[in-house]
Amino acid sequence: MAKVSKAEMLTAVLNSIQASGWDAIVLNSSHPFRISMYRADNRVIFVCYIWNLTHGGYPRDPNELRIQVTGVDRFTIESGAKTLVLGFSVDEKMFAGFDVTKHRISMSGRSPSFQIRRETLQHAKTTEFYPQTRLNNEIAIAFSPEFFATYVNELEALHGSAQHPQDILAVTQIADTNTTNIQDIPAGPRRTVLEQIQRKVRDTRFRKNVLATYGHRCAASDIQLDLLDAAHIIPVDHERGTDETKNGLCLSAIHHRAFDHGLLGIKRNYSIVFHEENFTKLRAIGWDGGEKAFRDSCRDAINLPSRREFYPDRDYLVFGQVLRGWNARHLS
After folding, report:
1. C-beta of residue 255 within 8 angstroms of C-beta of residue 305
2. What is the sign, positive or negative, of the torsion defined by CA atoms of 262, 268, 270, 276?
3. What is the pLDDT of residues 200-250, one digit of tens each?
4. Is 57 helix (H, G, I), strand (E, B) or coil?
């Protein structure tokens, strides 16, 4: 299996943070890396230990992959920061995460290895992440680059599911099917954590599906530049909101905000329309700077996916935009 340098692994981590919809600043580029990951007002700092994930060689099990921990006496647990212990497979372009709380002893004079099954990584390729129980009562997590930010945010919850067999089953079901028997778990912190994991897994899959469906291009403006969001047409928190691709639009950050603020609308025939009353209000208070440039950036009609089944649902469009202050007759 191919190996890469620490610098290349750092690049893979940063690219994965971007692929999962967040941004990052490297606070320390020496291993272990120290990274600040942020999106809007949310910020997470983490220390990242990472090694190549490879096969241990004959006569070891051909389905076993491992990291060999070298150059570290003890994993650092830093106040106000999370600690990641990762393996990276350049061949599979996948990560494996291990639970640092299970490896707190000194490693001075030793070079321990942590294992994960090859099929766990293969499974995670289709489901974004997948858990595996290890012999030390540890949950290892295989995950895709697009899942990186969710893994960091839910680090303790994902690995902490090892404490309850019912939680391990629930996390596995979330990975497999997007549905699970969370409601069978008594109300309280455990169920709340599992519901958060489920929501973030759905967000990850929705973003990946919508951006891919639109060819990583803003439907309203053709902008790419890695400045894209997956926007829900009917907000996901609404009772009619869904994570269907046809309830999504790939929009640049500014066009996403304009859509949510009711400045930019999409009619049933997919042509783009502007909410003139809202623009008039902005002009009245002197907040209309950039209006012409914004209007000029928009297409006459949105870009549509290549597959008709993924076209934005017309009824979703009208209902979702009425929620944002549009009159339905202006969208006909």
Report:
1. no
2. negative
3. 778 888 998 999 999 999 999 999 988 899 999 999 889 898 889 999 999
4. coil
Write the CA distances from 97 to 28, 84, 114, 161, integer angstroms: 20, 7, 10, 14
Quick: pLDDT tens for 108-119: 667 788 999 999
Using alpha carbons only, give the angle 319, 324, 329 rounded to the nearest 5 degrees.
55
Structure tokens at 69: 């921990």
C-alpha distances (whole Å) from 220 to each of 81, 252, 273, 300, 303 are 39, 8, 11, 8, 7
| Contacts (Cβ under 8 Å, ≥6 apart) of 113 | 56, 66, 67, 68, 69
C-beta atoms surrounding 280 within 10 Å: 10
Domain positions in the chain? 6-153, 214-331
Task: Tokens for 295, please give them.
Answer: 């209007």
Can you give the pTM of this predicted structure? 0.77
Backbone angles phi, psi at 157, to 5 degrees: -70, -45
CB-neighbour burial class of residue 307 (10 A; exposed 0-12, middle 13-18, buried 19+): exposed
